[in-house]
Amino acid sequence: MGTAETLVLLAITHGAPSLANRAGIMQLVDAVADALPGHDVSIAFLDVQHTDLADALAGFVTGEHAVILPLVLSAGFHMRTGIAKGLERLERIGAELADELGPDDRLVQVLAERIEDTGLTAADSVVLAAAGSSDARAVRECFETGRRLAVRLGRPVTVGFIAAAMPRLHDAIDMVRDVHPGTRVVVGTYLLAPGSFYDAALNAGGDLVAAPLLLPERGAPAELVDLVLDRYRGATER
């Protein structure tokens, strides 16, 4: 495939995205567009609960040399089924599906910074909250991110899932407290932007909850912009 001229970023949501979610994602979209002058960079928010992803994809490709890049941290059920099938049904030749964002050390760096921003101390325990998936590979990818985060922080990290996988986040927090009575539990959120999953993490019982990777009031971290550009270039070089 030659040089792509169109990049469609897909924000995969579970329900209608909140204003904060949209604002956080747009910080990333704007930064990517600034880094790709002369390219058509757009964003589509897809509610996986109410949208046929395979049907929706065809409408996002307006010409040849298009890259569709799902803004997902791990490639769960929706990406491996609906999105992949959608590409198979595209009539135009030239559309490419970019890889998922994680696992990647750039994500881990931003995760660590968000956790450290909570005021993390040496006595605290860390639980990493991930959205969860029924796809076994996606679950393994979340555990791999937890392993990398433990190396980056220099301490154990327990992974808990908000939905669809075990252990559930509240159970992971309780388990850490059972093993380390009296410890303060700091929850890192392996989530791209604020939304319903982040709200669930806030209410799972942790003492402190770190912010997600993208925040409406901040510019997109350079690490995330660089990661998206890498995934885009990887798709164009196939």
Automatic annotation (TrEMBL):
Pfam families: CbiX
InterPro entries documented for this protein: CbiX-like, Sirohydro_Cobaltochel/CbiX
Lineage: Bacteria, Bacillati, Actinomycetota, Actinomycetes, Micrococcales
Protein name: CbiX/SirB N-terminal domain-containing protein
Keyword Metal-binding appears in the UniProt entry: yes
SUPFAM superfamilies with a match to the protein in the record: Chelatase
Swiss-Prot/TrEMBL keywords: Lyase, Metal-binding
PANTHER family to which the protein is assigned, alphabetical: FERROCHELATASE CHE1, SIROHYDROCHLORIN FERROCHELATASE, CHLOROPLASTIC
